Amino acid sequence: MAITAKVKTEEERRAEQKAALERIRNGLATKVRILVALDACPVCRAAEGVYDFDNVPELPLEGCSNGGECYAVYAPVLDFYGP
Ligand SMILES: [Zn+2]
Fold first, then answer.
1. If you measure from the C-alpha of residue 28 to the centroid of ligand 1, how many angstroms do you get, rounded to a whole number?
2. Which residue of 9, 10, 31, 72 could cross-link 77, Cys pair, CB 3.0 to 4.6 Å?
3. pTM (two decimals)
4. Distance from the alpha carbon of residue 39 to the mean position of ligand 1, in angstroms
5. Which sequence spans correspond to the domains of the chain?
6. Does residue 71 have a pLDDT over 80?
7. How far apart are CA 43 and CA 48, in angstroms?
8. Which segments within the chain are labelled E, that is strand?
9. How many whole angstroms from 36 Cα to the centroid of ligand 1?
10. Which residues surround ligand 1, an ion (CB under 5 A)?
C-alpha cells in the first residue's frame, strides 16, 4: 500500500499547534480552550478545558500516553456572542 500523505514529525505538529495558538491569540479570543477527542488518553482528557494564554500547555501534550498522537486542538474562547 502506497502512503501518499507525508507523515508529520512531532516537530512539525508542534509548530503547527503553535501557529494555531498564535492565530487565536491575535484574534478576538480572550482565552483559549483545549479540545480533545473522546477516545484521547487520560492525560489529554484531563488537560481539556479553558486556559489563559499565559498558562496554556503546549500541544501535543507533555506526558500523553499515545506519544502526542491524541487529537487535541486549541479553540478560541470569546467573551461575547454575536447577535
Ligand atoms: Zn494523549
1. 28
2. 31
3. 0.82
4. 9
5. 31-83
6. yes
7. 9
8. 31-36, 49-51, 72-77
9. 8
10. 41, 44, 64, 66, 70
